[in-house]
Design goal:
The chain has 8 helices and no strands. About 75% of the residues lie in helices and about 0% in strands.
Length: about 220
């Protein structure tokens, strides 16, 4: 068991780590899709004028935001299958659990970004839509959301990059992603330098371009001059 860098060993483990990276990216992208849709739904629900609608949405958002993602993953993977819900035991694969956990957790954060964007729309725009007698769907689709969503992009982009960095928590529920593979290789060979170093490099290769991509989207929608 040596501590010097072994290039042959590093080359041998790269394919396995790349496989783990693929699973990590796939879970993150699926989680983003859920978060984008769920976040908007939660934001609209929280803005409802009916308290019996807005209060449950607000409670759910604050509950999810106030509890650690790791605890939520443990609940979905270990506790939920033991619960009898209308005679059904909900059992999910570890990867599906990670996708759902990421999507719901960051969907609640995304909802606050959407809500801030919606609240930033000038009151005159709301009044103009009302004076034109636009239906509710048309008002949101053609007036409010086209202005609110671009203003929500900076925090949304940060959340989605953060989601990618939180996705390795899936290793705690046996998702065979990058960190899981690096730890498994280290435990089997008693060499952690190479797998952990390569894992860190792979994270940088994905996360830095992702952050740059988010900035580019912001500029394309003219959020920044």
């Amino acid at each position: 068991m040596g501590t010097a860098w072994d290039w042959d060993f590093a080359q041998d483990i790269v394919p396995r780590l790349l496989e783990g990276m693929f699973i990590l990216v796939r879970a993150t992208l699926a989680g983003i899709l859920i978060a984008v849709v769920l976040g908007l739904f939660l934001a609209l629900g929280r803005r409802s004028q009916q308290r019996w609608v807005s209060y449950p949405f607000a409670w759910f958002i604050e509950f999810v935001r106030s509890t650690p993602l790791l605890i939520q993953l443990f609940f979905l993977y270990y506790a939920l299958p033991t619960m009898d819900i209308f005679g059904i035991n909900i059992v999910m694969s570890s990867e599906l659990t990670l996708i759902l956990g990421l999507g719901v957790h960051y969907g609640c954060y995304a909802s606050e970004a959407y809500r801030a964007g919606i609240n930033s729309v000038d009151r005159g725009q709301w009044e103009a839509a009302t004076s034109l007698n636009l239906k509710s769907v048309s008002k949101w689709r053609h007036v409010i959301l086209p202005q609110a969503i671009p203003r929500s992009l900076p925090p949304l982009g940060n959340y989605f990059v953060g989601m990618f960095k939180d996705a390795p928590l899936g290793s705690a529920i046996a998702v065979p992603e990058l960190l899981f593979q690096a730890r498994a290789i280290g435990s089997a060979t008693f060499r952690f330098v190479e797998p952990m170093t390569i894992a860190g490099i792979l994270f940088l290769i994905v996360s830095i371009p992702a952050a740059m991509f988010v900035r580019r989207i912001e500029r394309r929608v003219h959020y920044e001059a």
